[in-house]
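Morning run. Coffee first, then this:
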Amino acid sequence: MRRCTTTSRALSFVLVAVAAAGNRAAAQDATIAIAGGVATDQRGVRSNALSVAPSVSFSPSNAVSLQLGGNATRFASEAFSLGAGGSVSGQNPIGRFAALTLTGSGNASRLQGASRAVFAQADVVPALELRLWRMALFGGMRAATGVVRQETQPSIPIGGASGNTASTTSSGIGPVFGAVLALGDMEKTLRLGAREERLRIAGVTVPERTLSASLSFALTPVASLDLNAGRYDGNRLIGTPAGDYVSAGVSFRIAGSREPSLPAARGARPQPAGTTRLSIRALDAQRVEIAGDFNEWKPRAATRAANGVWYADLTIPPGQYRYAFRVNGTEWRVPDGATAVDDGFGGKSAWLTVSGARSR
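And here it is:
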């Protein structure tokens, strides 16, 4: 009973946080995903499964992002899994193509079925990330701990005896590295990931590898079709075996920023015909530059308007692009009001669609 209460409280906290964060100005996105497919549960049993997963992500600043989520999965094997988790990440850019990052995460899940168990783990990962085209490469160290509380049934059932509860704790530290390749645009996105970690647990180091692939198609501005597949080695921290999954489902965006508009550059010179004006409010800046896919990320100087908004009028061919502003030669920022997308580092780039008319 106590294990059920602990996990339920954790999930309740996440769901409350989802609702609250969705109403805050810093919120970037809140979604709920419904998916069905084939998956392996924590016991290593593979069967059909249906899951519902609410989540919220928001960024109080360009350098920090937070994600919270919950998950409820029903397996055809009659097992049921309930989980909750969260992560926070920060980054310190080193130029445009590198960053030092620090990520902390924690999650817990309860498996109810022929056997009952609670699994929980937490970790912290400092890393160096490099971006090459649409690929992000990362390498660092992972320090992690895991706890398992499992109910053991008596060998000879007597009356209504429910058995005993055994608890184990494991910790480890070791290198982690991998890569993520992201292709596509706002309408469709393909993401491929590979990760390997070598935690030293109880004096033994064994590689653990994870492969993942996801494909997302935008159906409407608030709904998308998601296809996911992956495989993973056994988790030695919490004692779960290797497994795999294949699923298809729909994600619904239930909260997020309103339709954006970039800050106006008051007192700026008239915008030349056939150009696109991009702007950012940076009152503390001595120098601002802009770079993006449209100029191969070669920074170009922006101009300061009378109200502290920096702007650049660019001739950009029709299409979809990612871009960002570099402030004082070091810090990359996304302007308030821009549609932000993952830059592959855990940070954000701004998204720009230029129509044939080349309007803002």
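The chain has one helix and 23 strands. Good start to the day.
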